[in-house]
């Protein structure tokens, strides 16, 4: 009798083991079908996932070789939009100690492409929103940690002459505490860090935000240093009808937003600009005239002591009525040329306290008040 009971027990254990093995073998197939079904549900796109691996021990599944193309409404042709070599979606174990079930997403070599007829603000917002919906469908948990490695963002205009294809490469982005499972009493509990390479230059971005706020709330500063302008000649020829012999550019930005209002600035700084070079000897007469005008304008507006042309464009308003003060930009060019040089760096002049009611915003001048992440500023935010 004991032998029969023991035999039945082994049979049950063997059956369970066989079931789990079969389930483990077949599960990736069903998960792959589910994931591709979710991709096909996105209207206006066509995409596919090649393969999926499961890692049950760490509670993860890995999407391998995925792409998502935008369907052009007129030609019905597919336009590359997003592709990624690997997407790793898994459970975050540490928040489980705080009874929080959240996940993390890691992307390896993601590429996003914006084409000329798809770069209106509304189109970008829709495309990125649709991509986020896809990620949400693929990831059953709320994403608390996001990381992208070795990524690229392209802007392509196939209809321009010459063709324009500019990009950020070797991009790394890290976003932490997106579901606010820690630091729940801090006004801006989440952090986003990003860096990338661009034509000899380097992008660095730091951002603190509250993703759980009803209205978008964040404090951002970013800078791109030492871009080689000659590497952007296709862009300059296509949209400015001139090219440059040499020069470097930096772009500096700060922005903060709260309660539907925003305030900030964008400051481009061009140094060692030389428009006319040996390669221009075969240009047409009118092309030479145009490039001479640009060259002369650069000399007139250049700060002679620092050999740079710069401006600061202030941005302020609300999400329903954003505005850029063009007269401010012109004034800053003239002031930089004849009075003082704009320091080529982030000024740390903008933080959440800058975004006040409209009367206070009208009185606000962009005077540096210390880093938004300094001890003094953090104390004020708390």
Number of domains: 2
Order of helices and strands: HEEEEEHEEEEEHEEHEEEHHH
What is the molecular shape? globular
- Mean of pLDDT: 77
**Can you tell me the residue ranges where pLDDT is under 50 for at least 5 consecutive residues?**
359-382
Q: How far is the first residue's CA from the last residue's CA?
A: 73 Å
Q: What is the makeup of the main sheet?
A: 15 strands, mixed
Task: Estimate the helix proportion, in percent.
Answer: 25-40%
The structural class is alpha+beta
DSSP strand count: 15
Radius of gyration from the CA trace? Answer: 27 Å
Figure out the total of helices.
7
Q: What is the beta-strand fraction?
A: 35-45%
3D structure, described in words:
This protein has two domains: 182 residues, no CATH class; 171 residues, no CATH class. Helices cover 28% and strands 38% of the residues. It has seven helices and 15 strands. The protein has a 15-stranded mixed β-sheet that branches. The C terminus is likely disordered.
